[in-house]
Amino acid sequence: MLRNRLKETPLHCAAKAGNYTMVSLLISFAEHEHHVGEETLPTATNMYGETALHEAVRVGNRDIVGKLILSEPSLTGIVDTEGVSPLYLATMMNMLNIVKIFTRGAIHGILCRAKMTNCTTRCCARKCRCVPLWSMLESIEDEATALMDYCGKDLSNEFSGITHTLLEWNKSLATKVDDLESTPLHYAASVGNLATVKLLLQHETLAVYMADKDGLFPIHIAAKYGRTLLIKELIEQFPDSDELLDKEGRNFLQLAILSGKGNIIGSIRHSHTFLRMLNARDYEGNTPLHLASQRGEYRIVRFLISMKMVYSSIMNKDGATPVDLAIKEVDQGYTFKSE
Questions:
Q1: Which parts of the chain register pLDDT below 70?
Q2: Residues 291, 251: Cα–Cα separation, whole Å
Q3: What is the crossing angle of helices 160-169 and 194-203, to 10°?
Q4: For residue 110, which phi and psi values (nearest 5 degrees)?
Q5: What local confidence, expressed as pLDDT, does residue 213 receive?
Q6: At 2, is the secondary structure helix, strand, or coil?
Q7: What's the confidence (pLDDT) of residue 95?
Q8: Rounded distance, CA 130 to CA 79, Å?
Q9: Which site in 6, 49, 189, 334 is 20 to 30 Å from 272, CA atoms measured?
Q10: CB of 127 within 8 A of CB of 115?
Q11: Quick one: pLDDT at residue 109?
């Protein structure tokens, strides 16, 4: 098979150039060829492991993408040397029209199966691998890789079309988990992507009650990063969010205080959810006031003790009250934060 120094075939070059006529001619020619091995012209890969479909996606040519998939559906299952599939590539390049071609193709027997590769960061190195439906004998798992990456970006509302398309294609993507047991909702919560959170919840609400490997629910993640508007949205839709506890028995208010994000209190202080958490104790017996005192968060301490519903005499498992913890911090040389 004729190739250049990048191991590209004429089909790669035609797709890269966006030449639909040439792509069609080459595909027609390939259909009449006799192949001894398994690799055909459409499935041939370059030195990066990419097929002509990767190139067609990269240049955003819908006609060529459609032509290649129709001629050889198995192309959707070929990933490059980095484990990137054509669908993953289209998703991360925000090519909505191209993504729609793949998702509509699912109706005709092509589904995406996402796999995880070794990565050094939480969400930037995940790759999507696709396989034809007829070659799958086990249930589809980890389909949501591309969606997780997309939700984990701080994108404006104009980019929600990709998320909507993927969820319309397969609603169960909203509850798929990765190797950290995180859902797309966890990632959207981490960056405060409110538009995406609303979109995810429109399709599936179960993810709200799914914890990751660290025992953190999406609302804990939002609290950890101080995503105030997102927390407000979640407790309005799910007023029982105070009952979601991490592995240390902490609700999202306690985690927010420990993470130095007590600023979330301002937007939720009038909610019933917030009021129910005022005297809640974690597995060590610490209330929000204990934790704020321990961290030297003066403004939070002052606000909490100003509320009649807060009991400042509650002792934790060590028999310490919030006042005891505050005195201990001062004795150890720490000062209360005034801001």
A1: 33-38, 104-160, 162, 329-339
A2: 12
A3: 10
A4: -125, 120
A5: 94
A6: coil
A7: 81
A8: 7
A9: 189
A10: yes
A11: 42
CA 180, CA 137: separation in Å to the nearest integer?
25
Report the alpha-carbon angle 215-216-218, nearest 5.
145
Per-residue pLDDT at 85: 84
Listed in sequence order, the residues at least 6 apart from 15 whose beta carbon sits closer than 8 Å to its beta carbon are 23, 52, 53, 55, 56, 59, 61, 64, 68
Residue 23 Cα distances to 7, 72, 80, angstroms: 17, 13, 20
The radius of gyration of the chain's CA atoms, rounded to the nearest angstrom, is 26
Helices (H), 95-191: 96-105, 145-151, 160-169, 184-191
Tens-digit pLDDT profile for residues 187-210: 989 988 888 899 899 989 999 999
pLDDT digits (tens, 9 = 90+) for 55-67: 999 999 999 999 9
Q: Bridge-partner residues for 129, per DSSP?
A: 113
Q: Give the Cα separation of 88 and 166 in Å (integer).
A: 11
Distance of CA 76 to the CA centre of its chain: 22
Q: Residue 332: which of 288, 295, 292 has the closest Cα?
A: 295
Beta-carbon contacts of 206 under 8 Å, excluding residues fewer than 6 positions away, are 174, 175
DSSP secondary structure letters along 25-81? HHHHHHHT---SSS--TTT---TTS--HHHHHHHHT-HHHHHHHHHH-GGGGG---T
- Considering the entire predicted model, what is its pTM? 0.67
Question: What pLDDT is attached to residue 160?
Answer: 61
